[in-house]
Amino acid sequence: MKGGVKVVVENRRARFNYHIEETYEAGLVLVGTEVKSLRAGKGNLQDAYAEVRDGEMWVLNFHISPFEQAHRFNHEPKRPKKLLLNRREINRLAALTQQKGYTLIPLRVYFKDGRAKIELAVARGKKLHDKREAIAERDARRDIARAVKEKSLN
To answer: Is the pTM of this model over 0.70?
Structure first.
């Protein structure tokens, strides 16, 4: 699929648990079996987060299942993966995460022009009352859609 974007893994809970401030696209440094496993859709971003270590950006707790055909040459599923970002972007993200309440959360992993990319979000955690408001809004939208559908059927 040349020139297209193929989404492999998405962190759908992130938008519910966090207020998303900004997003960044970063390249992922992977080994061969990780790429093959990701192409098969075997990844999990559930507890993943990113941080700056020694001037480099790393994503931690990103689980990529072992590739079944690799056997003994397989990768470690939760090994830290290096992210490819511009020096200016790394410095900006490091400064943002130093502020109270901000963190870096991966939203999705995808292949763009054959290269593995990750979408990072600068996010702030939601409080319980914010989550309740989001649930109420979603339920209200669902009720409205249901009522419109019933009205159009009659």
So the answer is: yes
